[in-house]
Design goal:
With 376 residues, this protein is of the alpha/beta class. The chain has one domain (76-373): TIM Barrel, CATH 3.20.20. Helices cover 37% and strands 14% of the residues. It is built from 13 helices and ten strands. It has helices at residues 17-25, 33-38, 61-65, 104-116, 147-158, 190-207, 221-231, 253-259, 278-290, 305-314, 326-337, 343-357, 367-373, and strands at 77-84, 90-92, 100-102, 121-127, 163-168, 211-214, 239-246, 295-299, 320-324, 361-364. Strands 1-4-5-6-7-8-9-10 form an eight-stranded parallel barrel, surrounded by seven helices. Helix 6 links the parallel strand 5 (163-168) and strand 6 (211-214). The longest helix has 18 residues, at 190-207. The protein is globular and about 80 Å long. The chain binds the ligand NCc1[nH]cc(CCC(=O)O)c1CC(=O)O and zinc ion (2 copies). The ligand NCc1[nH]cc(CCC(=O)O)c1CC(=O)O is lined by residues 167, 169, 171, 179, 215, 252, 255-256, 261, 268, 325-326.
Length: 376
């Protein structure tokens, strides 16, 4: 007698109504111990390969959750937000659905309900709208009265449980829109840029940031920031998250709309990694660990899952973060709007890939949605 002929409806009598259909569709391989013993199994011996019977591990919804090494939790999420120098402003960003730029007076009312729902961390991006705020050196980046330093102080005092991560870069503040200080030929002056970026990082840390995350990609910035944090006596209280493997490409468009940070000439290919450059990314990860990074980040996320897995292998004792960038977020929204998939289903499926690859921290514009979805 073959194994499948043992299957009878008896095996599914206990299933809740909603689960019966999916269980019955798997009936051919689902003969359970209960049906074997409670019906006609006594005289039957099973032959065949026991190791090929996999469905037992996932026929029940709870058993399916046990198959993932990591499940998304609220603690894993960092929410990127844009803060302008216009205190009362609240402007939706057309290319980034449901996201807005906000002034200082708008962020506490916006974040309060999210904190109540379990928001644990934000990543701040400063967006100076006042044109006089931009110059070749990005002077406004660490202006003590500028939006980022003001926001750090405000959020620290308003939300004691909120972990404040701050993106550190000059592109939002430079007149040319590049991520550092330039040489006469338009290339990045690495020495001057690292000097400036590390000063800005320390200013954010001194203002109360729990974590500084340099995204500029100048060589040697991690070491320079770590040394200055030590010098300032705050290295034991400030996490240094390196955008170690940040790739150039076409997925940052909506962010540049939001932050007004498109380069005024050229592009960022000379300082962001080429998308095919797996070896370069591996070298950057190893280097940044050696320079003192506390967290390694990979960005974008879903098109670089192999790099996330490389980071997990190369920096195995550090937390690995993945930035699901603006273009990935906008793409999922566009797909859902076009009826290709459900927004929630795709948001979870995409994040599951990121976690499976090895990340334990996800920086995502879906954070407010996930706080709702993870509560129900
Ligand atoms: N240094 C700027 C910066 N910091 C984070 C992002 C991208 C974030 C996103 O697309 O969501 C960018 C854009 C860029 O490098 O051009
Ligand atoms: Zn930049
Ligand atoms: Zn940046």
């Amino acid at each position: 007698m073959s194994f499948s002929t043992l299957v009878s409806d008896i095996a599914f009598r206990d299933a809740p109504p909603g689960e019966r259909d999916s269980q019955i569709s798997h009936a051919r391989s689902q003969a359970t111990a209960r049906s074997l013993t409670s019906t006609r199994a006594t005289s039957v011996s099973i032959s065949g390969d026991i190791s090929s019977q996999l469905h037992a591990g996932y026929s029940h919804p709870l058993a399916r959750t046990w198959q993932s090494e990591r499940q998304l939790t609220k603690e894993m999420l960092i929410y990127p937000i844009f803060i302008t120098d216009n205190p009362d402003e609240e402007t939706p960003i057309p290319s980034l659905p449901n996201q807005s730029r906000r002034g200082l007076n708008r962020i506490v009312p916006f974040l309060a309900p999210l904190v109540r729902k379990g928001l644990r961390s934000v990543m701040l991006f400063g967006v100076p709208l006042n044109p006089t705020a931009k110059d070749p050196l990005g002077t406004a980046a660490d202006d003590p009265s500028g939006p980022v330093i003001q926001a750090i102080r405000l959020l620290r005092s308003t939300f004691p449980s909120l972990y404040i991560t701050v993106d550190v870069c000059l592109c939002e503040y430079t007149s040319h829109g590049h991520c550092g200080i330039l040489c006469d030929d338009g290339s990045l002056n690495n020495t001057q840029s690292v000097e400036r970026i590390s000063d800005v990082a320390v200013a954010y840390a001194m203002a109360g940031a729990h974590c500084v995350a340099p995204s500029d990609m100048n060589d040697g910035r991690i070491r320079a920031i770590k040394l200055k944090l030590i010098e300032a006596g705050i290295s034991h209280q400030v996490t240094l998250m390196s955008y170690a493997a940040k790739f150039s490409g076409c997925l940052y468009g909506p962010f540049r709309d939001a932050a007004g940070s498109s380069p005024s000439f050229g592009d960022r290919k000379c300082y962001q990694l080429p998308p095919g450059g797996r070896g370069l990314a591996r070298r950057a990860i190893v280097r940044d660990v050696a320079e003192g990074a506390d967290i390694i980040m990979v960005k974008p996320a879903s098109t670089f899952l192999d790099i996330i897995s490389d980071a997990k292998e190369l920096a195995k004792d550090l937390p690995i973060a993945a930035y699901q960038v603006s273009g990935e977020y906008a793409m999922i929204h566009a797909g859902a709007k076009a009826g290709v998939f459900g927004l929630k289903e795709m948001a979870f499926e995409s994040t599951q890939g990121i976690l499976r690859a090895g990340a334990g921290i996800v920086i995502s514009y879906f954070t407010p949605d996930f706080l709702d979805w993870l509560s129900t």
